[in-house]
Amino acid sequence: MKGSAQEAPTAPRPATGKLGIITPGLGAVATTFMAGVESVRRGHSKPIGSLTQMATIRLGKRTENRTPFIKDFVPLADLNDIVFGAWDPIPDDAYTAAKKAGVLEDRDLEPVADFLKAIKPMPAVFENHYVTRIHGTNVKKGKTKRDLAEQLRQDIRDFKAKNKCDRVVIVWCASTEIYIKAGPQHATLEQFERAMENNDEAIAPSMLYAYAAIMEGVPFCNGAPNLSADIPALIQLANDRGVPISGKDFKTGQTWMKTVIAPGLKARMLGLAGWYSTNILGNRDGEVLDDPASFKTKEESKLSVLHTILQPEKYPDLYKDFSHVVRINYYPPRGDNKEGWDNIDIVGWMGYPMQIKVNFLCRDSILAAPIVLDLALFMDFAQRAGMSGIQEWLSFYWKSPMTPEGLYAEHDLFIQLMKLKNTLRYTKGDELITHLGAEYYD
Ligand SMILES: NC(=O)c1ccc[n+]([C@@H]2O[C@H](COP(=O)([O-])OP(=O)(O)OC[C@H]3O[C@@H](n4cnc5c(N)ncnc54)[C@H](O)[C@@H]3O)[C@@H](O)[C@H]2O)c1
């Protein structure tokens, strides 16, 4: 991340004019996010779950009583200045898509129906090969993948001009693509561009969106576990062009809980024999994840968390060979209201076993929507503060945070939060908070 701890901060530019937020994907998450922002703007709801709207940040000593709201401390775009756009292979407008997603009740949707009906998805770059369970007609045509990427770039320029936006941010809220391993096609920009021209299978649609965004100087976040921007060619491109990128995979339900509980076990040096997680989920995301190829992408993302937090190689007596199983079962009656069960087999003093059971009845898109908002506003802020490349300070929001090669990701939610807030303090040239607290006893 350029403009981070090693470099002097650039005073963030103010958030003047309109901010366009374009989401590839206009499904459950994107429509719940858009409907929620409009509902807040009209004074019908509170932005619950959003740090940019509701959280404060402590400045200076605990005795100073200085805790402004984050949004008053750093210049973030105002909700009233946001304009929404989307791409989706399914041509439904945001109202129809939200009705089909079934997340929000009519009492919340109807008051913003006019607003949602006006959001119509642009034709998507989409291929069934990468998301097998979705069939759409609102799809771009092009001879090569490079042509398709150029069309996306044109869409971004047109959207910006039509909506008189000062700035644009893109947040991937589209389906999880099949598992792809980074290969030579992703190694350098030259190889990546050649692969686009050759219609190489290793170049998935999500990579074309990421490429288009970075080429247009637009910050790009990836809410799904697809590789997308997380390949050397695009990380380098983002660094070279001074564009912030961030990902991957919104940390919402079960994984969020894992990154709360696992640091607690480790903090007390309690052992782990196994962690079994299972979910039932009935929305379209659940249907897409029912395809083993898409599930593999998700599974990789979900499995990495515990190992990185618990560090079995450093604590073999506590965490060597713990069993970690994650299942997602598509079960239509539940819709977006996912139910997750975790069985955690822990080990205490003298090796005595204990168990923790978590039964989380969550609402996937209700948890994801404020994350989309925060990411969009923070990424726009990052760009105005001169930060570019991987934004690791936003790892708070991700299941699989992107990091530079060779650096392990920080998954502990509380360390991530400290990192986020210290980064905000840093951008304003404010004192970082170490929690040492020695000054209170001088
Ligand atoms: N809700 C959560 O808690 C959560 C958490 C982590 C990640 N995610 C991820 O967020 C994404 C969105 O979830 P959702 O519940 O809204 O799913 P959804 O199925 O309701 O919506 C996804 C939309 O993306 C569209 N799409 C697919 N490929 C596309 C492409 N190439 N270009 C543009 N649009 C495309 C689909 O047509 C669909 O409308 C999924 O990848 C999901 O795994 C969600």
Write structural notes for this entry.
This protein is an alpha/beta fold and 442 residues long. Helices cover 38% and strands 15% of the residues. The chain has 16 helices and ten strands. It has a six-stranded parallel beta sheet, with helices on both faces. Helix 1 crosses helix 15, helix 7 packs across helix 9 and helix 8 crosses helix 10. It is globular, with a radius of gyration of 22 Å. It starts with 17 loop residues before the first strand and ends in a 15-residue tail after the last helix. 47% of the residues are buried. The N terminus is likely disordered. Nicotinamide-adenine-dinucleotide (NAD) binds next to helix 1, helix 12 and helix 15. Nicotinamide-adenine-dinucleotide binds next to helix 1, helix 12 and helix 15.
Notable characteristics:
single chain; about 450 residues; alpha/beta; 6-stranded parallel β-sheet; 4-stranded mixed β-sheet; 16 helices; 10 strands; binds nicotinamide-adenine-dinucleotide
List SSEs in N-to-C order: EHHHEHHHHEHHEHEHEHHHEEEHEH
Calculate the terminal CA-CA distance, rounded to whole Å.
37 Å
Beta fraction of the residues?
Answer: 15-25%
**Average pLDDT:** 93
What is the overall shape?
A: globular
Number of DSSP helical runs: 16
| Secondary structural class | alpha/beta
Major sheet characteristics: 6 strands, parallel
**Hetero groups bound?**
nicotinamide-adenine-dinucleotide
What is the oligomer described by this structure? Answer: single chain
Question: Spans of 5+ residues with little confidence (pLDDT < 50)?
Answer: 1-6
Helix content: 25-40%
Number of strands: 10
Walk across the major sheet and give the strand order.
2-1-3-4-5-10
- CA gyration radius, whole angstroms: 22 Å
